[in-house]
Amino acid sequence: MKSVSAITVHATWDKDAHVWIATSDDIDGLAVEAKTMDILEPKVTDAIHDLIELNGMRSQLSEVPVYIMVKHLLCVINPTPEA
Fold first, then answer.
1. Which residues have a Cβ under 8 Å from the Cβ of 39 and sit 6 or more positions away?
2. Rounded to whole angstroms, how far apart are CA atoms 62 and 76?
């Protein structure tokens, strides 16, 4: 039985599908997507709640911290490009 003290989730923007995709190396089976981060967050917490039990994970904490790390690349047009 795996003990859990915190879970790190990686949220990546899929520009082709226009959705955020959340995965984690800390909990098997987490793969959630949503159009916005506001929609993604509760989906992630609901999935993790279920997966903790399904994966037989245990924690002494009453609440397990979940860190959502966002990966989103933005590009800014350079106003002074070198020729």
1. none
2. 43
Summarised one tens digit per residue, pLDDT across range 23-79 is: 999 999 999 999 999 999 999 999 999 999 999 999 999 999 999 999 888 899 999
d(CA 62, CA 39): 24
Q: pTM for the full model?
A: 0.85
Report yes or no on 16 lying in a domain. Answer: yes
Distance CA 61, CA 53 (A): 14
Q: What is the CATH number of the domain that holds 20?
A: 3.30.2390.10
**41 Cα distance to chain centroid:** 8
Q: What's the total number of domains in the chain?
A: 1
Q: Residue 4 and residue 60: Cα distance in Å, rounded? A: 8
**What range defines the domain where residue 60 resides?**
7-71
Q: Is residue 78 part of a domain?
A: no
